[in-house]
Write a structure and sequence with these properties.
By secondary structure, this protein is of the alpha/beta class. Helices cover 41% and strands 15% of the residues. The protein contains eleven helices and 13 strands. The strands form four sheets. It has a seven-stranded parallel sheet with strand order 3-2-1-4-5-6-11, sandwiched between helices. It is globular, with a radius of gyration of 19 Å.
Length: 336
Amino acid sequence: MKVLITGTAGFIGNRLAERLLERGEKIIGVDNLNDYYDVTLKEARLAKIKDHPGFTEARINIEDRPAMEALFAKHKPNKVVNLAAQAGVRYSLENPHSYVESNIVGFMNILEGCRYNSVEHLVYASSSSVYGANTNMPFSIHNNVDHPLSMYAATKKANELMAHTYSHLYDLPTTGLRFFTVYGPWGRPDMALFLFTKKILAGEPIDVFNYGKHRRDFTYVDDIVEGVIRTLDHTARPNVDWSGDKPDPGTAGGPYRLYNIGNNSPVELMHYIKVLEDCLGKKAEMNMLPLQPGDVPDTYANVEDLVADVDYKPDTSVEDGIASFVNWYKSYYSQA
């Protein structure tokens, strides 16, 4: 099988490419290696897979329409996984245009590539951020999500709507995956675990938002990737019971599906920090701050549909996941 993956120099995309190459798939890896964060880290991720005989690298922007059209026409992938995006809730307050360019324009180019090249299944990253102002826990894909609290969340909601349209109009199977606070080895330097680790080791104070009271459904990267692979292998199908009188947001009359991929076990931020302190053998100095604009107090994934359809539920504990991250961090930066 030939799979086009966008974001192969990224945190999740790189690990997914590794896993699919291991099982014998051919991967076309798209990434522009932008400087949103350390390009050296992105290059190091790519170095793990770039010499694999099944890997073909395409260093282009997904918002570059002619380049994406040519890529699809040349390689004719069987399936596509879109993980390239401008990430980060707080950065979306500073630079909203970059989110429209990558997450909206880029995704449009991917949808068109799938439409015109007979792609069997498009799987794409959404986010738990789409739940926005929702407070009914745990978050369910069958809940309405029309109140995003950041531009990042709004673009991810838009991706789901765009995918639905293409599933309806062109019978393109699409599956959107709402990821819940992904962490682990080779993670992004702008995410909390990376920032906390760097500052604690340097003896610098860490910023703890919402005074440490909010909870997150922290989900280990390998659990996310396993969920992506299982849904990729399970092509979206129409819900024959779907009704416009009582529309179900998580399914459709066309081949369209949404799933949460989360640990289904929220952890308070202060416990997360305590586990990190134990793994580092060092206490953190903390700046206790209020909840930031665009952030939500809690996230909690209902994964019943993921279990029912692909027989999978993430289960890596934060104790095991943080220990793996710390081991990687110390090894990677001692070598660097």
